[in-house]
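Thread amino acids onto this structure.
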């Protein structure tokens, strides 16, 4: 299949929509720049999810073309891929801005590619056309596409390549039989680069399916009966957590698992996978004859139609079973329109150092806020207040019914810091209820939250327009433990 695609004239008009949702449902990701307040145009890079591709922020704004640049990590180096779309009259502004663009990207990488709909007749050996070609050559770039890419007969869609050590080789094929309704032909290019492997990652998991429910329930009661809450809140939480962790380690030990980082749509069933397999087989032989190519195109159409049918049936079934639940309906709409929150992070080769940097950044930020509330910084109030209300000295103890009502309204939501996962909490919440009530009352009585103020912190970017590599562009969102939420 295709690993990376440069697209011109996307006609997308926002970051996330139904089109980007469909792209992602097929296991691809998309980075794109769209025209604001104007229809048409737009450039994008679509790539297999999991590939080490990040957007490269250009330092300049260009008037004569639309552009998006991405950085592709390989096993040995990085390659900058620039997708460029130029339309309108070809004036001297374009070669001038092209020179600025190439000057910037050539200083960032030893290997770089410029691809897109340039709308330039490079066969003309005079005028601005020659000037543009000379600029590409001045940066040592080679023009790859020689065959016509337009129904008018010119090579308007081009790929230019520069490889400092000549390590990037290529082969390009223009597919002249375009059944997609465009007046341009798709250009397929194969590069001999080995992308840095990020298709799989190792995680630690517990196989909860192997737990014997009756045995677990019996052992859980023993743990709860032997764990005392007649002590300070912090030690009580520590002892209970240790006992529950030991029980879980016995019933479902932690193990390592290698998983794919590429999301697969839930409606991709066996029938669809088999059809995709046939399509891939036809793709390998599509250039043998026109009949083989047409057969491949027919399979492409059938695969697309089947995916739409499967997706429609899958979403329809969820809606039908939702019984009008607004949260479920909103979730479906956000998924179809690709309005879900995307977790972007600053570029980093060491994820542990990045987490440490975020942690220290937020600690320093809180310290600065606290400094503003020092006694010396608080102005004295001239207004007099009189307290006539009854003074409160202690909280009213909670009850099992009150805790159950809270859980009924907010649900059981866990964080990675919880010892028992959500599945087990839901199954055994009645057994845990007396202990939960005792712990909540102990916390209210002692005024302590020791041991439950643990949270899983996720940095979320405040605005997509902000610099994604600046820690100041992110706000911390904490996911408290289940007991901490109560």
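Threaded sequence (486 positions):
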């Amino acid at each position: 299949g295709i690993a990376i695609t440069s697209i011109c004239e996307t006609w997308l008009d926002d970051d996330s929509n139904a089109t980007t949702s469909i792209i992602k449902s097929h296991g691809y990701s998309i980075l794109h720049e769209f025209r604001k307040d104007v229809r048409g145009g737009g450039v994008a890079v679509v790539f297999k999810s999991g590939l080490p591709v990040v957007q490269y922020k250009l330092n300049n704004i260009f008037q004569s073309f639309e552009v998006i640049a991405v950085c592709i990590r390989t096993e040995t180096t990085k390659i900058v891929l620039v997708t460029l779309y130029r339309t309108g009259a070809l004036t001297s502004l374009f070669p001038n801005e092209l020179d600025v663009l190439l000057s910037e990207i050539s200083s960032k990488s030893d290997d770089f590619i410029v691809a897109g709909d340039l709308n330039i007749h490079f066969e003309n050996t005079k005028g601005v056309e020659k000037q543009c070609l000379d600029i590409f050559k001045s940066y040592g770039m080679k023009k790859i596409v020689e065959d016509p890419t337009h129904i008018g007969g010119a090579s308007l869609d081009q790929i230019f390549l520069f490889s400092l050590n000549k390590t990037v080789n290529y082969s390009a094929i223009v597919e002249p039989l375009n059944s997609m309704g465009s007046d341009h032909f798709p250009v397929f290019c194969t590069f001999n680069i080995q992308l840095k492997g990020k298709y799989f990652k190792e995680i630690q998991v517990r196989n909860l399916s192997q737990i014997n429910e009756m045995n677990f329930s019996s052992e859980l009661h023993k743990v709860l009966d032997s764990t005392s809450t007649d002590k300070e809140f912090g030690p009580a939480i520590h002892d209970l957590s240790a006992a529950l962790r030991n029980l879980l380690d016995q019933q479902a030990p932690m193990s390592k698992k290698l998983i794919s980082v590429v999301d697969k749509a839930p409606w991709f069933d066996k029938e669809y996978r088999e059809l995709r397999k046939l399509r891939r087989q036809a793709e390998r032989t599509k250039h043998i004859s026109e009949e083989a190519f047409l057969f491949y195109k027919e399979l492409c159409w059938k695969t697309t139609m089947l995916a739409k049918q499967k997706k429609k049936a899958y979403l329809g079934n969820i809606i039908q079973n939702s019984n009008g639940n607004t949260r479920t309906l909103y979730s479906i709409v956000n998924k179809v329109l690709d309005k879900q929150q995307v977790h972007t992070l600053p570029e980093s080769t060491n994820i542990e150092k990045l987490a440490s940097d975020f942690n220290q950044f937020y600690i320093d930020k809180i310290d600065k806020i606290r400094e503003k509330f020092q006694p010396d910084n608080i102005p004295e109030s001239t207004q007099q207040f009189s307290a006539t209300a009854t003074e409160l000295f202690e909280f009213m103890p909670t009850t099992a019914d009150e805790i159950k009502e809270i859980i009924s309204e907010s649900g059981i939501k866990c964080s990675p810091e919880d010892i028992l996962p959500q599945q087990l909490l839901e199954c055994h919440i009645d057994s845990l209820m007396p202990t939960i009530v005792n712990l909540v009352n102990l916390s209210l009585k002692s005024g302590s939250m020791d041991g439950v103020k643990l949270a899983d912190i996720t940095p979320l970017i405040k605005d997509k327009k902000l610099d994604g590599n600046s820690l100041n562009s992110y706000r911390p969102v904490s996911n408290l433990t289940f007991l901490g939420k109560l």
